[in-house]
Amino acid sequence: GQQVMQIPQYQHVQEGEDFTTYCNSSTTLSNIQWYKQRPGGHPVFLIQLVKSGEVKKQKRLTFQFGEAKKNSSLHITATQTTDVGTYFCAGDSLTGANNLFFGTGTRLTVIP
Amino acid sequence: GAVVSQHPSRVICKSGTSVKIECRSLDFQATTMFWYRQFPKKSLMLMATSNEGSKATYEQGVEKDKFLINHASLTLSTLTVTSAHPEDSSFYICSARDPRWAYEQYFGPGTRLTVT
């Protein structure tokens, strides 16, 4: 079955340092989405990437979709304590089922 | 953004009883809703896709007779955990896709189920 893996599983950074999480799918995706889940909260949509090689930016966050549409990355520049949470990628398969398969998530801790 | 509500937020039930969880899209009509299960500090596992007016599509390994899904209207889907057991204790989250935005899903706040 479809699998979406993320690395690293955990990341501790000093405030101001950069952070990157990588997402890899076992199958080609039609699009990839990124979500952030704060401790005790529910996932909140951040962004969607559709095109091969696409790069999108949201302030300090940079999202990239691989050329083969099987991997993606999220990079945060100069982390802040408000960035704390678990970041999930979620892939929408090519089957047309319109459902998401979530990655394993990367839990980010920012040390003030 | 669109709003999705879930009720109840927490429920404790005894083993053998059934529990119903409601998921509502508050400001848009959702022909498709999704039910996820999340174990502590783990990722979300898609359980089933709920389609308004038709049967739900269950993921492999999810018992459809155990987790009954009903999507009776464009704004409401329900998940009923039948004959609950302690191993069913988990965080259940629903999401709905806003048809005005092709891919984005909006998540409910989740329901923490504890079976004693």
| First and last CA, distance of chain A | 40 Å
Radius of gyration of chain A: 13 Å
Along the chain, the helix and strand elements of chain A come as EEEEEEEEEEE
Q: What is the helical fraction of chain A, as a range of percent?
A: under 10%
Radius of gyration of chain B (Å): 13 Å
Describe the structure.
The complex is a heterodimer of chains A (112) and B (116). With 112 residues, chain A is mainly beta. Chain A is built from no helices and eleven strands. In chain A, the strands form two sheets. In chain A, strands 2, 4, 5, 9, 10 and 11 form a six-stranded mixed beta sheet that branches. A five-stranded antiparallel beta sheet of chain A has the order 1-3-8-7-6, with no helix packed on it. The model of chain A has no long low-confidence stretch (mean pLDDT 91). In chain A, strand 4 (29-37) and strand 5 (44-49) form a beta hairpin. Chain B has 116 residues and is mainly β. Chain B is built from no helices and eleven strands. In chain B, the strands form two sheets. In chain B, strands 2, 4, 5, 6, 9, 10 and 11 form a seven-stranded mixed beta sheet that branches. In chain B, 35% of the residues are buried. The model of chain B has no long low-confidence stretch (mean pLDDT 90). Chain A binds chain B through residues 1, 31, 33, 35, 41-45, 48, 50, 88, 92, 97-105, 107, and chain B through 1, 32, 34, 36, 41-46, 49, 57, 60, 93, 95, 97, 103-110.
